[in-house]
Amino acid sequence: MDMLSKIGRLFQIKTRFEAWLVIYAIALGAVERGRHYLDTYPGWGGWLLALACTGVVFIAGGKLLDSVKSPKPALATGPYRAPLPRRNLNGRNRPTRLPQRRGSESRISRRRD
Questions:
Q1: Is the distance from CB of 19 to CB of 64 less than 8 angstroms?
Q2: Interval 48-77 mean pLDDT
């Protein structure tokens, strides 16, 4: 099974360059198929089938390019430095708790009308 997985990795599209190569191959096949349709079905029928063949290239190409991860953007290099992360001035990592009231009575029950 290990050998089959190694062979299977050869058929995975990992980079955008490989995706563009596959799209080019699909486009060549689609144009050839469209020429065949124009010869076989003269008139509007052949033209519609040829246009359908070339339209599929756009759909498949978009799906291929969307499925491949794009490279991470490089860090911006310019005259400005990256902003430093903000520090908490009081030195605490989280907000403090509010002081708890003692006793079992609620505020409403302690009211005097």
A1: yes
A2: 84
Q: How far is CA 55 from CA 34, 47, 66, 91, in A?
A: 11, 12, 17, 61
Q: With the C-alpha atoms ordered 81, 83, 87, 93, is the resulting torsion angle positive or negative?
A: negative
Q: How far apart are CA 107 and CA 50, in angstroms?
A: 80
pTM (predicted TM-score):
0.56
Q: Which two three-digit tokens encode residue 97?
A: 């708790």
User: What does 33-97 look like in DSSP terms, one character per residue?
Assistant: HHHHHHHHSTTHHHHHHHHHHHHHHHHHHHHHHHHSPPPPPPPP-SSSPPPPPP--TTS-SSPPP
Structure confidence at residue 84 (pLDDT): 75
The tokens describing 34, both together, are 């469209």
Each residue's pLDDT tens digit, 71-99 = 666 665 667 677 777 766 665 666 666 66
